[in-house]
């Protein structure tokens, strides 16, 4: 997910959601195959500082899906998405080996200044705080800080991956060193079996990606 705008009140913001792969040179490429079509099932909304939710409709635009909104006041705007309609990953005739994926996405867009602290707003959530170019990452699950030792994966614009475990304050810190898109990822498995679209599964994999664009 990429978020593009001027950072000014009453000027349009574009949210672009894409799917792709990473080649042998660690470059990202967008694709438009079956996985790309699954983006249509994401439900996106904007949450402003006052707690007002606004639904975002995505439209297909070539190699990405796009939604737009216009910030009408200064403050922080959280972009949150959920797709719980992804097909079950069929890994074995034994249903216990099959996995139901549920994907979440989040990001933030700021217009001017904001003094309102952010709070978790979906089942798995990530909130960032920045000071002097250093980001503190607060991951949440079920509206609560994750346990100490939870692994958070960070992908930089060159797709180098770094695994960091949360400390006793339930957080991690990192410093971006390159411009571009950073993806901060949290995975969690719920060992609850079930059936989706006639396919049985043994567990649910929740994945939340925070998308951070550094100019």
Tell me about this structure.
It is a single chain. This protein is mostly beta strands and 215 residues long. It is 2% helix and 53% strand. The chain has 1 helix and 20 strands. It has an 8-stranded mixed beta sheet, with no helix packed on it. The protein has a 4-stranded antiparallel beta sheet with strand order 1-2-8-7, with no helix packed on it. It is globular and about 55 Å long.
Features:
about 220 residues, about 55% strand, mainly beta, 1 helix, four-stranded antiparallel sheet, eight-stranded mixed sheet, 20 strands
Order of helices and strands: EEEEHEEEEEEEEEEEEEEEE
Q: Can you list the strand order of the major beta sheet? A: 6-5-9-10-20-17-14-15
The profile of the biggest β sheet is: 8 strands, mixed
Strand content: over 45%
- Shape annotation: globular
Question: Spans with pLDDT under 50 lasting ≥5 residues?
Answer: none
Considering DSSP H and I runs of 4 or more, what fraction of the residues is helical? under 10%
Summed over residues and divided by their number, the pLDDT gives a mean of: 95
